[in-house]
Structures are given as structure tokens and as C-alpha cells.
Amino acid sequence: MKLDELFKNGIMSVEESEKAHGMPWRDTVGSTDKENPLLYMPFWEWQMEFMKETLTNLRVVPAKSSTSNLDFSFNDNKEKKARIVNHCYASDEYRKIRMSYYDAGDNTQVFNSVWYPDPKYNLPVLGIDLLAFNRKKYLAIVDFQPLYDDEAEHATTFEHLLRPIKDEYDSLKGRMSAKFYDETKFFSQQMLFARFEDEGVVMEDLFPAFQRYVKTHVDLVSSTEADTQPSSVERVMTRQQEYDTYSAERDPATGLFAAMFGKAWADEFVYDFLFSLSERAEGGLKIPPMMGGGAPGGPPPSQPQKAPKQEARQIQKVVVQRR
What we know:
Largest sheet: 8 strands, antiparallel
Helix content: 25-40%
Strand content: 15-25%
Number of helices: 9
Order of helices and strands: HHHEEEEEEEHEHHHHH
Distance between the termini: 42 Å
Structural class: alpha+beta
Radius of gyration: 19 Å
């Protein structure tokens, strides 16, 4: 059985999974004039190494639908020169850690990861969302996403652990737009948030801050006493489900996925992989309109397509506006 098939079915070691679909990629499938075309690949590689070194009983979870058996581990659009790879893992500390890398050359680069603590720990979810458009506009979010509106409802408070880190990075102290997200719901006051145009911020500020937030989250989980009472576990799982449902309804990247891979795939991907505990909305995803009022799914592959740069600008507008 080929390596990619083993990965799809989750019957391989973590070390083997790292190589599936040619990961870590070294070059882009899109057009570029950059020496480092895969801007966020260092984040992916560091996180993989850190997970292997730090987490207990780290194992591969199949990246596929629980209902249709659709494989989410890889997808590409050769005509539009875009691809996405998705990994999913679990450990004794975390119920689910998912990682996604989206590559469309200089038009769009995305690294996204969410870490869900095992429900025996009443702790926030670690969310990471890094995007680059045309290598000119950048968006970054890293946060301990609270499951409750009141931090005191967590078994261990956490914002005091993040404040000293955030204070060191003025470039990451932006505020999220309230147009589509309520920053008081599933977002902490110590969220790293930035919109910027200086690519130097990525490695000078964002990369070390990201590393420190990830390490702090793992330390927090490791230092928290497990509560295995069924009622406590059920309460945490209920809140994680509410987090997934809230996020599935609002994640602006759904427009990007629909544009590149079709709405049917995007529906399954969002509800069965990205936010697999979410309650599926009637009629599936509500895709945000693009410029001119059209849906970002665009015409089927047999019909004429928009120029890649034009389409990237449209996707960028939707994503940035929704953040």
C-alpha cells in the first residue's frame, strides 16, 4: 500500500505521516518570485518536531469524513495551481490536533492549526491562523480560545501566562473586527492579532511568539490536574462542540475552499474535519459573496475560469473583511 494510502487510513507512524503527499514541501505549485515560496512551512515543521518531542503517545488520526469516507488529507486544483494538505493527530494530552497548509504560490499561503485539549482538562483551545496574500498583505491570529465567557470557569486561569509574551511584540497587538466575530466569544484578551504589510514581521515577531504560545499551552495542559468525572468531561465536550459550531458558521476560509475545490468538498471539509463536532447548518455552508455578488465557488472546471491573481484578490477581500 502506498504511503499516501496508509496516511489516509491512519495506519502509519507519526514519522511516516510527515512524508505523506511529499511533505514538508520545498517548492510551490503556484507562481513565485520569492526565495522562500512556502512562507509558513517553518511553522509547520517546527510544530511537527515539537509535538513529537513533547506529547505523550502521539498518534495519527485519519483525515477523512466520518460519514462519506471522503479523504481530506490532500486536495489540489491543477488548473488554478493550488493545493492543500491536512494532518490530524491525538495524544494523551490532546483529543485532536489538526494542521492544514494551503499553497497557491505568491497569491495565497495559509497555515492553520487547532489544538483541542483532552476533555479531562477544562482548558482553552489553541487556535493558529496565518495567512498571506500576494506577499503584500498578511493576517495572523494565535490565541488560547476560551470555552467560556468567564475565564474563572476554567479549571486553570491562563491569560496571565500570555500577557508577558504579548507585551514583547507590539506588531501583534491588533484588534479583531467585530463585523463577523464577537471577540468576547471564544477569543481571549491576550490574543495575538495582526494585519501587516512588512513580511519581516513573520519571522522576526510572529514565529517566536507562535512558538512561545504553543509551548505555554502544552505546559498549561501538562500542569493541570485531570478531571475524569463523567459530568466534567461531558461539560467540556459540550463547550468544544459549541466552539466548533460557532467557528464552522463564521470561518471566512470557507470561501477559499469552495473557490478552489468546490462547495460540496468544502461542506464536508468544514463539518467533518475542521470542526468535526459542529452541528451542520441546514443547507450546508453559507458561502460569503465575492465582488460583484457572485459566490466564490465559481464555475465548474469545464467553464472559463478567472485569472488566478484576480481570484486571489477576491478571496483576500472576503477573508480580510471577515476578520
